Amino acid sequence: MSDQSTKREHGFSLLEMTIAMGLGTLVLGAAVQLYTQGVGATWTASQRAEMQQDFRAVSDMMTKDLSMAGAGLGNGASIALPSTSSPVYGCAAPSGTNVCYINGGSVAYPTQGTVPFMYGLVPGYQKGPAIGAYSGASDVVTVVYTDYAFYLDCYAINVTSATTVTFTLTAASQLLSNCTNNGNTIQAVGYGAVGLTPGDLVLFNFGSTPIVAEVTAATSSGTAGATGSGGTVTFASSDPLNMNGASSSTTCNCLAYYVNNTTGYATRILAISYYIDNSVSPPRLVRQVSGHTPTPLVDNVVFLRYTYDLFNDGTMTAAGQCNNPGLASDTCVYGSDTSPTVLYPTQITKINIAHMSMSSMFSGSTVLSGTQGGYQGLDLETSVSARNLTYANDYQCTSSCSTN
Fold this sequence. Notes:
- By secondary structure, the chain is of the alpha+beta class.
- It has one domain (52-385).
- It has helices at 14-67, 366-369; strands at residues 78-80, 88-89, 91-92, 99-100, 107-108, 111-112, 115-119, 121-124, 140-146, 156-159, 164-168, 201-206, 209-214, 217-221, 230-234, 265-277, 284-289, 295-299, 301-312, 317-322, 348-362, 374-385.
- The strands form six sheets. Strands 8, 9, 12, 13, 16, 17 and 18 form a seven-stranded antiparallel sheet that branches.
- A hairpin with an 8-residue loop joins strand 14 (217-221) and strand 15 (230-234).
- The longest helix is centred in the N-terminal third of the chain and has 54 residues, at 14-67.
């Protein structure tokens, strides 16, 4: 008698395979969708974190510069510039040829009458480019302050010609009250990036008369900090910023008038402009120092707007949200003052970054799923005190105040 197996062996049916494949496809599709959404969220979060980090770094640098506006300039942080050469800012000579960058050109300094003035803070209302069709022209802001890290004020000077000045370090010059080295080694006049280089601005003080000139060449002699060291600096005409007027007239505010003068001293000043560069895509915020090539700070900045708060210590009146101090057409909030007078940049007490906007396209999960990307943006609004510009604290006194 033989044993016969009662078990019957067979595979899946077509219906069973179809159902299993359908369920597997659904599970796999759901897993891919979850993975895609996770990658997209991670990408978006990392991009936003990078935008916030860039924004924070730029705002820290900008607010630091704004807070230094007018430091060390004296004279009410207001310096008359050569009226014969039409000084500008936003230009440099990176390759020996003058190039201007702000909205494809240069920006002239504001004037009082026919005389251009360099202030501790120079508003540039709507001097920048318009990035969007509806945003309007962006603003530019320029701050000017003394370079305290370079001890040029410890050198004796001799204006040897209308375009050259000789700097000499003497024992007597190091003892003058204007020498600010505080025991530190006095750098050589043309010592690399620390010393004077073409594009730098030098403020000469001849008694109560300040003169600004732009360096076009500089040479050094001797050893840093050693008596007898110095150098010759050239301030040739046709400089990128048009600071070097050739006239010898007293009304020119030019270095040429002080030939053979040995009674003054000099300091390097930094004229720093912030503006949007739209010559590249995406647009970027740049920082330009004096007549040097601009430095890109961050991409995707699409708008920049400043307003200013001012105080007139002559009439004891304040104004807020001014766009362009110095112009009669400027729109300000004057409070109770019914007959406001024109206020100038020397009367600025606070700078308001009214709107600094960054916008960036993020791709999310576009590569993985082909879905549409989008945009995200950040806006900055803050205020900075202009502690080195003119400011007056007025405490109103009543009849109960003591007259002593």
